[in-house]
Amino acid sequence: MNEPRPITEVAVGVLVKPDGQFLLTSRPEGKVYAGYWEFPGGKVEPGESVEQALARELREEIGIQIGAAHPWQTLVMDYPHARVRLNFCKVFDWTGEFQMLEGQQMAWAALPVHVKPVLPGTIPVLQWFATERGHAGPTHLD
Ligand SMILES: Nc1nc2c([nH]c(=O)n2[C@H]2C[C@H](O)[C@@H](COP(=O)(O)OP(=O)(O)OP(=O)(O)O)O2)c(=O)[nH]1
């Protein structure tokens, strides 16, 4: 049997506003899946917890300071370029102005999501939201 591919831990932030809208950002030029929409986050560095990595990534990428990160769901994705474990955390509190420090775009979204394309690893999150919110019908546009 083949050895499983090594897994890269990724911390992902699901920022939710009081009205239920959630933040999506586009992947910057130069990264794999450039232009695809996702929840902001990035790889956990050695010695960091998921919560620490999330706070760092959101500070570096979108310029905000987050309050508590609430672990929500995890998902392993096997991409051609990597095998990743996405650690999705909900975040309800943050301070600072949003700044797209890597030239991304941002969008506050609701179901169904209108920005496209969305990253494959983002689609299950939209389905979790749909279940949580009793949303029927498509979660995003193809
Ligand atoms: N941030 C984020 N990454 C996701 C999501 N869904 C998903 O499959 N991924 C994948 C894409 C990448 O393979 C990996 C995240 O790595 P990344 O390239 O964004 O991480 P990073 O900011 O640390 O990048 P770098 O230092 O390697 O440039 O997780 C998502 O919703 N958000």
From TrEMBL:
Q: Which SUPFAM superfamilies match?
A: Nudix (SSF55811)
Keywords of the record: DNA damage, DNA repair, DNA replication, Hydrolase, Magnesium, Metal-binding, Mutator protein
Q: Which residues form the Nudix hydrolase domain?
A: 6-131
Name of the protein in its database record:
8-oxo-dGTP diphosphatase
What Pfam families does the record point to? NUDIX
Origin: domain of life = Bacteria
Organism expressing this protein natively: Pelomonas dachongensis
What does the record give as cofactor?
Mg(2+)
Q: What is its EC number?
A: 3.6.1.55
